[in-house]
Records
---
Amino acid sequence: MTRYADFHRRSIADPDAFWAEQARLIDWQTPFTRVCDYDEPPFARWFVGGRTNLCHNAVDRHLEARGDQAALIFVSTETQQERVYSFRELHAEVQRMAAILLELGVKKGDRVLVYMPMIPEAAFAMLACTRIGALHSVVFGGFASVSLASRIDDAEPAVVVSADAGSRGGKVVAYKPLLDEAIQIAAHKPARVLMVDRGLAAFSRVEGRDADYAALRARHLDAGVPCEWVESTHPSYTLYTSGTTGRPKGVQRDTGGYAVALAASMKHIFCGNPGETYFSTSDIGWVVGHSYIVYGPLIAGMATIMYEGLPIRPDAAVWWSLVEKYKVTVMFSAPTAVRVLKKQDPAALSKHDLSSLRALFLAGEPLDEPTAKWIAESLGKPIIDNYWQTETGWPILTICNGVEKAPSKFGSPGKAVYGYDVKLLDEQTGEELAEPNRKGVVVIEGPLPPGCMQTVWRDDARFVNTYWKSVPGRMVYSTFDWGIRDEDGYFFILGRTDDVINVAGHRLGTREIEESISSHPNVAEVAVVGVADTLKGQVAMAFAVLKDPSRAATPEAALKLEGEIMKVVDEQLGAVARPARVRFVGVLPKTRSGKLLRRAIQAVCESRDPGDLTTIEDPTALQQIKDLVAPPA
Ligand code: ATP
Ligand code: MG
């Protein structure tokens, strides 16, 4: 048995011993008396009886050994700001923010909604919340008033922390009017709003409700706010899933289990060491931002880069210039961002000294082979795909190089991560598919490991019914993704369970067809959906973004290219998988976190209402598809 196989086996066979050992990676104010309480499945309670604090583990405990080392590195290519906060400075800022929140009436267990651009005050606010035992509920700054209002009503925050504006590609995006509108729409009215004024956009204040951060901070410069030691099971935050498949779910996370899970992942997965720099290009509004911009790196004693700006402004080398400047050792991004870079000048990648960088981790969506190969070759560094969900908070599948070095396989996020008893089940019968190379639903046997969701915020029934009851006759956690596992234990994610199409009785994963189409040299990106067809039940429809759109400039050229692409699919997968049409668009509809909105594309193709589109990045993308499938008369 390999070292990793044994490590994983121990984590499943004797989770108490395994996790008790991992729990030593963090500080406890009171030791726990029970590792895992799974008396009431599927609700798992980790490190029962223990008391700890996330903020203490992320900030305070590093003061002695590395108080003057960098903790938070803020870089904005939007406002041309750059500022490094040491652990000591971060400690001071977080205490000031905590004192302000206390003054505004926030108590332990209260929710604080954070609606902020990528500025240091957002991280201060998150850390200040967990410091005093309040729950943060970060809402991605790109959401507009209706999405924000629904989250305000769900979280019922005592206080909202916000800013005058964000900035994207040089354009100021005002936040305050959207926030005011959201509070107007919402049934719940937060008592206070704390405003960080960046001087980007003038805004009106509501008397008695809105407070000014700078003014309050000035009064609390010397604030000393001790950490509130909370039960390990005390919720640290709530966060919504991306809403790719429907109404977002409010994920509730604990304190102790999360801290242990992140600390362990920094060691075994990311191999980040204290004193080094971690750079995650995500946003604090997403789970990657929570786990791997704010908490994970800081818990590990690393500096973390918080970057406000685009990956291609001022030029496509900006990220790599930060890698060089701050000697980044571990980097985390998403395939969608890599595809953006792929369209730029490849020379950008060789302009900077990247010798500090050990690996680039990618997650969030399937990493197609062409994209993986391109970035691996351009960087000359290991690319490590990792598969997980907002619900789990940290990777389910990846390569744990910190336990034992192992090769990656293109197209596979890797093996089951320690702590996760991952299985593939037959969707119809619920039978386990133990032999390799069989396609099934990816499920996790309970209890979920530390760090995963405790429940759906204020909705235990939705937690049980949504996640644990989808497979007949078994209580297992469903990821709602299809997968396959090879002889070596490597998983391949084949798409979401609702992304399977049925062409004349053949069940096809849209992901497989997309992979095939992506291998055409002129295809930058593609989405495939199943569309109802009276003859075949369903047919595959493909929408592709071209690297060189001029090759489809005329209808004749487009038809020729369409034929070429269909031939690729015929050769690789067979004629049964050939899409009925391959259409060319300038941009694909995605969630703001970069995930393809297949359900919306499918609805448009079937002339149905695309449903909840609050998470869409660019509404014109869907319009382009509408115009193609049902041209305006
Ligand atoms: P919702 O659950 O609200 O529909 P969502 O599933 O898009 O939204 P997230 O939790 O942000 O919300 O995304 C998790 C999903 O993203 C996974 O279930 C999987 O479908 C996809 N995913 C994440 N990482 C990978 C990866 N490395 N490879 C393939 N798919 C991935
Ligand atoms: Mg999901």
---
Amino acid sequence: MSSKAIILVGGGTRGTRFRPLSLDIPKVLFPVAGRPIISHALSALTTVPSIKEVLLIGFYDDSVFKDFLAEASREFPQFSIKYLREYRALGTAGGLYHFRDAILKGHPYRLFVIHADVCSSFPLAEMLSMFEEKEAKAVILGTRVEPQFASNFGCIVMDSATKKVIHYVEKPESHISNLINGGVYLFDRSIFDVIAAARNARAEQARDDPSEDEDAQEVLRLEQDILVRLAQADGFYVYETRGFWRQIKTAGSAVPANALYLQKLFQTDIDAPHLARASATIVPPVYIDPTASVDPTAKLGPNVSVGPRARVGAGARVKEAILLEDTEVKHDACVLYSILARGVKVGAWARVEGSHITPADHSTVIFKNGVRVQSVSILAQDVVVGDEVRIQNCVVLPHKEIKSDVENEVIM
Ligand code: GTP
């Protein structure tokens, strides 16, 4: 029986917390562990042989995905991959409903729906087994977070014996559970009946409230409008993963996502292409694009990705960082817990630094001397850092030249 997958990719007006990195590249195409964020989800989908078609649904211009679709079709020949564009942001369920004919074409029996901004071990085969075993209508991926972070997410209350979802609240005001929505779902076709019912309820409400904008009625969110309904009916289960999981919301969260995907690659395929071998100067996992040049005396890792044509000079130190294409880290410079966007140049003996964070933190904000700052330093496209300059916990907007030390600032 055939299945389909839908990846919700959003659009230019969403994912604003990913700025300034999303100013020149859509968040979902940003490379972590050497590959666009959505490629990791596509790789995971290859573990489900019944999936033949993957639909990316979003509201970016069609041109945004043109090159990616050509590359992805070569990398994943088992899938037909298409981009379907919403005429405006229709919400995570509104887009599904709008494209229901395209989604249901070929009569798929099951539909995987994945939020593109999730970094996960994607236990899709396990979700599928649960779906079949329980004869479910819907299975949601659940993951546990520290209780203090739970209210930033959709929270799930389940019956621990049956794994049935009995209650779902998006970003609750008080603590109800630390089992949260992992942004991956498996539905059967009846999901469209549930969305249709939510739409009708919305239309009814609008009849009573003429101030409601007619266009807004089209906007439906899986989390608020659909999952709450599913939890009130039978057949909705949660698969609780013990694998890694992290959301990619802020630009800084690309650093822990990069670390998680590199570690996964290192653990599952130590000889994977472009993973650098451990040595006195390489602390794995480190990914180096074949067109990059790294001086043998530079020390890299752990959790470093070096992009195409990047250059790392003698005696440099790079750790927990992403260096995108055409970046340069000159000799004896140090880049820690940071992201260098395309074309960034870091001078000799300079230091670009963030603060230590762990993936379990689920936040890229820290407090230093009582001030809220970004834990990761982010230098946007073509920023130039002078020799011997120190940048600490800063976000620097594109094309700036930094000539003196800066700390805990957003430099515009
Ligand atoms: P918050 O987490 O509430 O700040 O919102 P968000 O837009 O950053 O994320 P949300 O959890 O709402 O979205 C989950 C995924 O769905 C992300 O990958 C978004 O890019 C995507 N998404 C959000 N809104 C839409 C939409 O209107 N249409 C489509 N196709 N995708 C969307």
